[in-house]
Structure to design on (114 residues):
């Protein structure tokens, strides 16, 4: 069992969701995040005052999968997010899951992930 955490651009979320569903990956969590990679900070003027925005909006996608679904999930994410020569495409982290328990049924392990 693995936990896949992907940090992606917000505009890629609809296409990412569609690609994951094609790979039969139905269960995932999405949350908003702020972060900075190699992107150049954005300069904005608000009410006449210049501001430097160094933390940009990102989306954090978390997917808990059995080992058979790790490669399809990574493939789905990279298919959507990869654009040649474009900085700031995001990151994927793959972590081992020690245990998973479905609260409703008390199932454990790979059966609990689904």
């Amino acid at each position: 069992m693995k936990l896949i955490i992907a940090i992606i651009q917000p505009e890629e979320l609809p296409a990412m969701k569609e690609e994951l569903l094609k790979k039969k990956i139905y269960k995932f969590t999405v949350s908003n995040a702020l972060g900075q990679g190699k992107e150049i900070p954005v300069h904005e003027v608000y009410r006449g005052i210049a501001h430097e925005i160094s933390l940009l909006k990102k989306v954090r996608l978390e997917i808990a999968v059995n080992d058979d679904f790790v490669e399809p999930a990574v493939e789905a994410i990279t298919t959507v997010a990869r654009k040649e020569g474009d900085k700031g495409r995001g990151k994927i982290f793959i972590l081992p899951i020690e245990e998973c328990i479905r609260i409703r049924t008390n199932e454990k392990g790979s059966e609990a992930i689904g």
